[in-house]
Every structure is written in C-alpha cells, then in structure tokens.
Amino acid sequence: MPLSEEESSKKSELAQLKTEIIERLSTLITTAFGLVAALAWNEAIKAIFAEVFGSPTELVPMLIYAITVTIIAVVATIWIGRTAKKLK
Hints:
Blueprint: H1 5-53, H2 59-87
C-alpha cells in the first residue's frame, strides 16, 4: 500500500534526523580522539623540551613550548581550512 504524502514526509524527516545524529556523533567522537592525541603529544613535547631546556617548570622553556605549539596550531588550522575550501 503506497504511503500518504504526510507519512512519506515523516519518513523523510526521520531519515534526515538519523543522518544528522550520526554526523554529529561522528564529529564528537573524532574530536574526542583528537583531544586524546593532542594530550599525548603535549606530554611528549613537554618531555622533549625538558631534555633540551632543563626543568619544564622554568618560564623560558614554557614560553618557547607555548609559542611553538601555537604556531603549529595556527599553520595547521589555516592549511586545513584552505584544503577544505578547495574540496567544496
């Protein structure tokens, strides 16, 4: 038996909702994994800076670390944005 227009519309809305939920969950999970990876790299980079510059509690190594990470983050963000723009 064919679906009425209203039933068809509801099915379409439900399918859109499911798709949106899956997309949002995918984004959240990807972001969570990114955070875990960032925290792991944070500790690794801190250890490298401690080896090179001494105690990680000193101000100069902490500033060098913060500036380096900020520069990398900005460059990566710009690169990802440009790449995403090209794909659209």
